[in-house]
Amino acid sequence: MMTEEFEMICMQMITNSGSAKSSYIEAIQKAKEGDFKEADRLMDEGDQFFTEAHGVHGSLLAKEASGEKTEFSLILMHAEDQMASTEMAKVLARELIGLYQEK
Question: What DSSP character marks residue 35?
Answer without folding.
Answer: -
